[in-house]
Amino acid sequence: METKKNDLSKCFDLPSLCPVFNIRAASRIITQLFDEILKPSGLQSTQFAVLVGVHIFDTPSINKLAKGLVMDRTTLTRGLKPLENEGLIKIVSGDDKRIRFVKLTPKGKTALEKTLPYWEKARSVVSDEFGQKHLDGLLKDLASVREIKN
Fold it and tell me: For residue 63, is it within any domain?
């Protein structure tokens, strides 16, 4: 698609009209806040989310975990390596050697328990700043967004 010079004026409207622009900006702000508060736990918010997913899905296959976390499988696989190196998870083969499963180790369970209070504090900060009613509405709207299919 060819862009005309005068079409670039539309860029000025992007911050107020574009869902991806706003969602990604909001995501970065929230991620930075959570990462700062979670720092003493030793986990980043993305790592915490993966460990929570492994716990919730109870030793999921990598494909199931990627789908549940709405992540690309290869991106997830790269993100699992540091968690495995830290001994927080173990990746094991199933009966079919092509399928690999992610298991939370005792050290991983301890890391989740240690990080959960920091996550609760971060969530409380967002709730206090945003207002619980507004946050509840936002979470409901974001759940609806997850239903969009490409």
Answer: yes
∠ CA(34), CA(70), CA(42), 5° rounding?
A: 30
Q: What is the dihedral of CA 28, 34, 35, 37, to 10 degrees?
A: 150
CB-neighbour burial class of residue 48 (10 A; exposed 0-12, middle 13-18, buried 19+)? buried
Q: Would you say residue 134 lies in a domain?
A: no
pLDDT at 15: 87
Residue 86: give the domain boundaries.
17-119+142-146
Q: Tell me the Ramachandran region of residue 92: left when phi exceeds 0, alpha when psi lies from -120 to 50, beta otherwise.
A: beta
Could you give the angle at the alpha carbon of 116 between the alpha carbons of 41 and 69, nearest 5°? 100
Would you say residue 105 lies in a domain?
yes
pLDDT the model gives residue 11: 87
Ranges of the chain with pLDDT below 50 = none
User: Is 85 inside a domain boundary?
Assistant: yes
Alpha carbon distances (Å) from 4 to 8, 11, 14, 15: 7, 13, 17, 20
Domain of residue 35, CATH code: 1.10.10.10
- The amino acid at 6: N
Number of folded domains that form the chain = 1
